[in-house]
């Protein structure tokens, strides 16, 4: 009987020592990898979101989500290296009539957190078709940021320099 009580006490002690995961309400991202295969890039990010509201549902299309910039929640800004400096190549995805053609912006779906602790922690994988734009410059990189449903923006991560195929 004493050994059973000791085992139960140890289990309760271990369970009480488990810390509840806590993250900031603003999403946080880390670049895990970026791999190039021909004209396609495969981007992998890890993320956390403390209030569990990262991702967009199919129904998230009205109100603030009807605005062009909020229709997506993963933003890759495209830069090319010219004359010793990184130059942002402006691709205005919200310009009419091309607002449905959003290059390098992606809509990551919502995944409902399970349990009482609603924090989210996971991995995002994005396939970037045609990862470079035609130009005379040969080096590119992306700056990446995500936004949650409260429109809180994450930190920005920057990819390594990528060389366009010749």
Number of domains: 1
Low-pLDDT runs: none
CATH architecture: Sandwich
Profile the largest sheet.
6 strands, antiparallel
Indicate the CATH topology.
Immunoglobulin-like
Q: What descriptors fit this protein?
A:
mainly beta; Immunoglobulin-like; three-stranded antiparallel beta sheet; 9 strands
What does this structure look like?
10% of the residues lie in helices and 34% in strands. Strands 3, 4, 5, 7, 8 and 9 form a six-stranded antiparallel sheet that branches. It has one helix and nine strands, in the order αβββββββββ. It is globular, with a radius of gyration of 21 Å. It is mostly beta strands and 166 residues long.
Can I get a quick summary?
The protein is mainly beta and 166 residues long. Helix content is 10%, strand content 34%.
SSE diagram, text form:
Blueprint: H1 2-17, E1 28-37, E2 40-49, E3 74-82, E4 85-88, E5 105-106, E6 120-129, E7 139-146, E8 157-158, E9 162-163
Antiparallel strand pairs: 1-2, 2-6, 3-4, 3-5, 3-7, 7-8, 7-9
């Amino acid at each position: 009987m004493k050994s059973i009580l000791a085992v139960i006490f140890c289990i309760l002690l271990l369970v009480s020592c488990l810390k509840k995961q806590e993250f900031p309400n603003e999403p946080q991202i880390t670049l895990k990898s970026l791999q190039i295969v021909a004209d396609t890039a495969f981007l992998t990010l890890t993320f956390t979101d403390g209030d569990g509201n990262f991702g967009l549902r199919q129904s998230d299309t009205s109100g603030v989500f009807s605005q062009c910039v909020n229709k997506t929640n993963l933003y890759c800004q495209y830069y090319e290296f010219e004359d010793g400096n990184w130059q942002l190549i402006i691709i205005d995805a919200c310009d009419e009539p091309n607002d449905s053609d959003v290059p390098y912006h992606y809509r990551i779906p919502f995944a409902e957190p399970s349990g009482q602790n609603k924090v989210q922690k996971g991995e995002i994988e994005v396939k970037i078709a045609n990862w470079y734009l035609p130009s005379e410059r040969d080096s590119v990189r992306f700056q990446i940021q995500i936004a949650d449903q409260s429109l809180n923006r994450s930190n920005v991560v920057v990819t390594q320099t990528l060389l366009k195929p010749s």
